[in-house]
Specification:
The complex is a heterodimer of chains A (79) and B (324). Chain A is an alpha+beta fold and 79 residues long. Chain A has helices at 11-26, 39-44, 68-76, and strands spanning 3-6, 33-36, 52-55, 58-62. Helices cover 39% and strands 22% of the residues of chain A. Chain A has a four-stranded mixed beta sheet. In chain A, strand 1, helix 1 and strand 2 (33-36) form a beta-alpha-beta unit. Chain A is globular. Chain B has 324 residues and is mainly α. Chain B has one domain. Chain B is built from 14 helices and no strands. Chain B is globular. The mean pLDDT of chain B is 84. Classes of the chains: A alpha+beta (79), B mainly alpha (324). At the A-B interface, helix 2 of A face helix 3 and helix 5 of B. Chain B: InterPro entries: DUF318, UPF0718_permease.
Chain lengths: 79, 324
């Protein structure tokens, strides 16, 4: 499973990256969370809001900052 | 009857009976004002954020983009872009992907800018604060002005043929079509989801709202009535442009600025002048310029900021002249 956080480098985006790392750790997954600030990548996914949480290249959370529980729930659906 | 009357009674009770502060003191006045306004606004926010969660679910910004790009609109698209700008939540984090996404879909530059101008100025939170603090008449006038600002600003910028000043790489980006999600959620699950989203958003912005109202409450209680009239006269022709230009580099969220602005107006700052200041603070800022610099060449950025500032100044004058 590939987990990515994409953002324009704004504080909200960084926060999502931190929370996602925490979620992955708490779920005991052996995956690295990748943080991408290349805007082109976001647009190429067809998404127009930031930040984005993408799993296996698909955007699953876009445009807002969820809490850790919500991120964990989302990731679990892909395990 | 005022539907907020029960809150008024509650605020009076807390401030004057529970805390036992004299009603006539500055402190009592400030605290009473703070309790009343914050309760009223938080209740309104809960309601409107719930409805906006519904709107966002059925009308995500990707759908709005597809609507705008679906056919030729012959100028109506400026209007639609501006309307969409009012109903979408806006965070400066999103302005770049939005800009590229619109351009990439073939939406004209001017229309895209219409959206970018209106979006930060009007959102559900700003509307609630305006309605709660200034009343519905001024709120409606404000929303209409912000939309006209977007429509007119985008139209003028569109006519100037500035496409060559968009960063070159923007034209080469190709996005993949996002598959439309087809997971039908149960209605009961949706209702829960809307409530959670609305509640989360309200929770997140409440500290900023309270901070804004607190500063407003201090001004309300301690600054003498008409205090600013001596400094800023409504007929001073330079007040509006100065207020707008000073505010352009500054940034603050609409949420924090509106309560402070209301208290300043109450103490004698002309509404149009305060409004010009607020619109420039919220709509244009140095951080926003730095972000947009990644997709706009200098010349486009200067036109964008310049024309928007001029329009804000015009709105300020109009409010000072016609709204009492």
């Amino acid at each position: 499973m590939k987990i990515q956080v994409l953002g324009s480098g704004c504080p909200t985006c960084k926060k999502l990256f931190e929370l996602t790392k925490q979620a992955v750790e708490e779920l005991d997954l052996k995956t690295e969370v990748e943080y991408i600030t290349d805007i082109q990548k976001i647009v190429e996914m067809g998404v127009m809001s930031s930040p984005v949480l993408a799993i296996d290249g698909k955007p699953v959370i876009t445009g807002f900052l969820p809490d850790v529980e919500k991120i964990k729930e989302t990731i679990k659906k892909f395990i | 009857m005022d539907i907020f009357y029960p809150i008024k009674i509650f605020a009076d009770w807390i401030a004057f009976d529970v805390f036992g502060i004299e009603q006539t003191t500055h402190l009592g006045d400030s605290i009473n004002f703070f309790i009343y306004d914050s309760l009223k606004i938080i209740i309104l926010l809960l309601i409107i954020n719930y409805f906006m969660a519904i709107v966002r679910h059925y009308l995500p910004v990707e759908k709005l983009r597809d609507f705008l790009a679906s056919r030729k609109w012959y100028g109506l698209d400026y209007f639609f872009a501006s309307v969409f700008g009012t109903i979408t939540p806006f965070c400066s984090c999103s302005s770049i992907p939005l800009f590229i996404g619109f351009i990439e879909a073939g939406i004209p530059l001017g229309v895209t800018l219409s959206f970018l101008i209106t979006s930060p100025l009007v959102n559900q939170v700003a509307v609630v604060l305006f309605a709660g603090l200034f009343g519905w008449k001024i709120t409606i006038l404000y929303v209409i002005s912000a939309m006209l600002l977007g429509i007119f600003g985008g139209f003028v910028l569109g006519k100037l043929k500035l496409e060559k000043y968009v960063a070159d790489y923007v034209w080469n980006i190709k996005s993949q079509k996002l598959e439309t999600k087809n997971n039908k959620e149960k209605f009961s699950a949706l209702i829960k989801k809307f409530w959670h989203e609305g509640f989360d958003l309200t929770k997140k912005i409440t500290p900023y709202v309270l901070l804004g109202i607190a500063v407003g409450a201090v001004i309300h209680g301690y600054v003498p009535a008409g205090f600013f009239e001596n400094y800023i006269k409504a007929d001073n022709l330079f007040a509006v442009p100065i207020a707008a230009i000073v505010a352009v580099p500054m940034y603050a969220n609409a949420v924090g600025v509106i309560p402070i602005m209301q208290s300043l107006v109450e103490k004698g700052i002309p509404l149009g002048t305060a409004l010009a200041f607020m619109m420039a603070v919220v709509g244009l800022s140095l951080p926003e310029a730095l972000i947009l610099k990644r997709v706009m060449k200098m010349k486009l950025l200067i036109y964008f900021f310049g024309i928007t500032t001029i329009n804000i100044i015009i709105i300020g004058y109009l409010f000072n002249a016609f709204v009492k």
